[in-house]
Amino acid sequence: MIIISGFKVYPRELEDVLFEHEAVENVAIIGLPDPNTPGSEIVKAFIVLKDGFRETDEIKNEIKEFLRKNVAPYKVPKFIDFRKELPETLVGKVLRKDLKDIEARKRGEEV
User: Fold this and answer.
1) For the purposes of burial, counting CB atoms within 10 Å of the CB of 46, is it exposed (0-12), middle (13-18) or buried (19 or more)?
2) What is the DSSP string of the chain?
3) Residue-level pLDDT at 109
4) What domains, with CATH codes, occur in the chain?
5) 28 near 67, Cβ under 8 Å?
6) How many whole angstroms separate alpha carbon 30 and alpha carbon 39?
7) Which residues pair with 63 in a beta bridge?
């Protein structure tokens, strides 16, 4: 669960909505610490696009607009990161913890 200024965001809910978008092959949602609001998080989406779709700002904006129409405004990811693949278990479950660890290393935090 992701906490945004006291509001609860369930990653699975956002992922289910994103799977409805025509360009999304796979997706994982994580919460990252919000540097401007202690105790709060920001939403980040990792998206694998289907064949035929390119990683552009236009598709990023289209995905955000799609979410704005389908979920509350505070649930829309502040960041979208396109990936070729997502880390998964042997049975195909996305490893959100690995994505959080990668993001923590990028920001220089200890994992």
Assistant:
1) buried
2) -EEETTEEE-HHHHHHHHHTSTTEEEEEEEEEE-TTSTT-EEEEEEEEEPTT----HHHHHHHHHHHHHHS-GGGS-SEEEE-S---B-TTS-B-HHHHHHHHHHHTT---
3) 63
4) 2-102 (3.30.300.30)
5) no
6) 15
7) none
For residues 68-77, b (16+ Cβ closer than 10 Å) or e, as one string?
Answer: eeeeeeebbb
Report field, pTM of the whole predicted structure over 0.70: yes
Residue of 24, 18, 17 lying closest to 51 (CA atoms): 24
CA-based nearest residue to 64, from 35, 96, 56: 56
Give strand pairing partners of 9.
Answer: 2
Per-residue pLDDT of 8-56, as tens digits, reads: 999 999 999 999 999 999 999 999 999 888 889 999 999 999 999 999 9
Burial zone of 62 (CB within 10 Å; 0-12 exposed, 13-18 middle, 19+ buried): middle
pLDDT at residue 94, rounded to an integer: 93
Q: How many CA atoms lie within 13 A of 52 on its CB side?
A: 5
